[in-house]
Amino acid sequence: MPDELPGLPEPPPLGASALPPGTYDGRVVLVTGGGTGLGKAIAAEFARLGADLVVASRKPEHLAAAGRDLGGLGGRVLAVPCDIRDADQIAAAYDRAEGELGRPDVLVANAAANFPSPAEDLSPNAWRTVVDITLNGTFLCAREHARRHLASGTPASVIAVGASYAWTGGPGFAHSAAAKAGVKNLVETLAVEWGPAGIQVNGLVPGLVPHEDMTADIRSNLDRNRSNARSQPAMRVGHPRELGWAATFLASPYGRFISGHTLVVDGANWQRRFLTNPEVVPVREQLGRGPFGAAEPGAHPRG
């Protein structure tokens, strides 16, 4: 491939925005998993536009990071402990948000669970945990958000963070791909159900966007492969702020008529195809695992 191919241009610098300053003044945005990684990047862009933030996480260190890193960007920041698998904890987080900042206008359902594994190695508990956090947690948060606005007759927005393998499947990620397919369907279903009440529901899918909270498998792949930019049609990887800009637009007054849509922010990478497919590499080989059960007696319990 010629070295002169430019790819997609780099984005404006961190801190820039296409939306007018103060777009989110007086509005409250709740971000699950917003203390680190892409969740924090999304929360930061809302804060720069004036939003008050509610950051929900199970992990105290992530809540501390949210207060430290997001506090000086714009509005107020409230960090609340919450396990999104528990409807009572979600309700408590919303109660506290309403009491201290006001009812959240925007929900960014970002929190999820994931790790690579051949499907045959997944224990029932591993499957349940990923589906429970990623799919059930997204639904429970969206339900709580919508119920409060349905009861008060106020408009609202939900953004659910998805994954492109919701369409394609994802070898090594059967649990997460199935859960994210459910999230995509939720977006489309809830947008129709809640649209008459003024609640828009959209999905947001990141591509390869390096950040500090990446899973170990993705980080190790980036460390091994220094040509990741050239493996993307854009000829570059994404920047966290680009995902944040997409989220702030979807929930803004300028995106009101967009609902039931999942926006993929990945430089067209998930649509890439080869004219002649490369050889198939079995997922166990990709993950550096030997034949199932052959060299690891007792390593694959049925429970």
Written account of the structure:
The chain is 38% helix and 13% strand. The protein has a single domain (28-277), classed as NAD(P)-binding Rossmann-like Domain (Rossmann fold, 3-Layer(aba) Sandwich), CATH 3.40.50. With 303 residues, it is of the alpha/beta class. It has helices at residues 37-48, 60-70, 87-100, 124-152, 165-168, 174-194, 216-224, 240-250, 283-286, and strands at 28-32, 52-57, 77-81, 106-109, 156-161, 199-206, 262-265. The radius of gyration is 20 Å and the shape is globular. The model is unreliable at 297-303 (pLDDT under 50). It has a seven-stranded parallel β-sheet with strand order 3-2-1-4-5-6-7, sandwiched between helices. Helix 1 crosses helix 8, helix 3 (87-100) crosses helix 4 (124-152) and helix 4 runs parallel beside helix 6 (174-194). It is built from nine helices and seven strands; from the N terminus they run E-H-E-H-E-H-E-H-E-H-H-E-H-H-E-H.
Specify the CATH architecture.
3-Layer(aba) Sandwich
CATH hierarchy, class: Alpha Beta
Counting structural domains, the number is: 1
What is the 3D form?
globular
Q: What's the total count of β strands?
A: 7
| Spatial sequence of strands, sheet with the most strands | 3-2-1-4-5-6-7
Superfamily (CATH H level) name: NAD(P)-binding Rossmann-like Domain
Strand residue percentage: 5-15%
The name of the CATH topology is: Rossmann fold
* Straight-line N-to-C gap: 49 Å
> What is the SS-derived class?
alpha/beta
Mean pLDDT: 91
Give the quaternary arrangement of the chains: single chain
Helix content: 25-40%
Secondary-structure element series: EHEHEHEHEHHEHHEH
How many alpha or pi helices?
9
